[in-house]
Every structure is written in structure tokens, then in C-alpha cells.
């Protein structure tokens, strides 16, 4: 068995094992799937063993592949922690700063991000929009804006950022076709925008639709709250929107605003190891000042 010539091959094979297909792994790695295949085959040749069973649905790890997966995971976590510890030592207001949140929060966060950019032009703010919560302890992000219940991880510094109220809205186009419901009893005569099962469990409106609205009335389901807003705007159905966002849109009409409304809390989250670094503190200060002044 030859010595492994490139540790990157282990990382690539590890991602294939996690994702299950070459295409999915290539997307995560941002390389062509043929490159992924070549690197996996190269690693198998060096180890003189098969790491994956190939089948129509993708790649399934062999027993030897399982050993590689465990080692790959350890290496991946160790490198993440190393990156995180290096970042924690940063005391300058320049370079990259990773912020993660859900896509539906960008409309709310954009003005605060603009203020941060104007005050700290040497910091490159990179915003990662994912429904999946990234691991702050592994350096996947430096700051997170989390929605819903207060995070309870003991290694996280959690600060309240703001609360947002939301209600039902329909576009002028929808109202022209179907009219406005004047009571909860009239809702069965209307169509709604809902959420895809497994996504956005923290969005109160989506939960309300699942519990209170007949599935036959849900004309479309989306996995992202930002896309739900677009669907409502284009008249596909009635849907939930933050009041502040709806008020900035000229063609939205509130629906039963005194009877149906929800509140969603947002939290500013950092890891203890980077909480006191200059860039993280600067972002936290700008965000807290912006939302406290609203």
C-alpha cells in the first residue's frame, strides 16, 4: 500500500461519504464531479482497497470506508477548531467576518449590515444563508442570528437582538381575484402560501398553516421564508409576513390583523472563544445599537 500523497483526497472522500453522491459532494466542494471521482479512485488505488459500493442511488461506504469516514471527521473537526482558535486570536478590524442566519432575515438585517460596512470598510462581511444551523464552535461562522427559542448551548454567548411581529397579508392582485376575508370563518374560501415540511420549524406562521388550514387550500409550499414573501407578493395566496416588511411594500393588504398575528424573537449568538475579538465585538455593537434605536 502506497503512502497517501495528498490529504485533500481524504477530505474529498469524507464529503462523498457524508453526501452520498458525487454530484452532491462536488457541489459542497465547489469542484467538478469528474474531479471528485478521480480523487476518490486515486485514494482507493493508494490504499489498495475499495472505500465505496457504487450503485444507482449513489455511493455507500464499505467497512474500510467507514474507518476513513471516522478519521476524516476527526481531521475535519480538528481543522475547524484550529481555524477557530486562530480566528479567536484576531484583534484587528480587517479581513473576513462570517455571519450566518436564515434567508428570511436578510430583509431585516440589511440596514444594520450597511451601517457596519460604512463604519468598518476594511472588514469583509460574508453572510451565509442556511436553514441548517452552522457550528460556531467549529469556525463555520463567527456570529449567528438565530430565530425562535433562545439557544441553550453552554459555550454560546446569547444576547436578545429584537422581536418581530407578523400577520397575514395578501397582494392587491390576490384581493382583486378573491376578495378579503372579513372573519376567521371565511378563511376556508381562500388560498394560502405554506412551508415545506422539515424547513423553518421556527416560523410560527408556517406552523399555524399546518394546524389550521386544510391542505387543499395551500396552493404552494416553499422552503425559504424569503420565497414565501415573493409568492405572496405575486398573488399566489395569503401568507405570513413581518409587519415591518409588509409596510415597505405598496401592494400588500393586511388580513384580520387584530385577530391573527405572531411574534418571533431573534438572538445574537457568538461562541465564547471569539466573542471578545475585535471584529465580532464591532458587529455586535452595531447590530445592538441599530435594533435598540428602532
TrEMBL record:
Keyword Transcription regulation recorded: yes
InterPro entries named in the record: LysR-type_TF_proteobact-type, LysR_HTH_N, LysR_subst-bd, WH-like_DNA-bd_sf, WH_DNA-bd_sf
Ranges of residues in domain HTH lysR-type: 1-62
Any GO MF annotation of the entry: DNA-binding transcription factor activity
One of the Pfam families matching this protein, by short name: HTH_1
An annotated GO BP: DNA-templated transcription
Alphabetical UniProt keywords: DNA-binding, Transcription, Transcription regulation
Family, as annotated: Belongs to the LysR transcriptional regulatory family.
Protein name, as recorded: LysR family transcriptional regulator
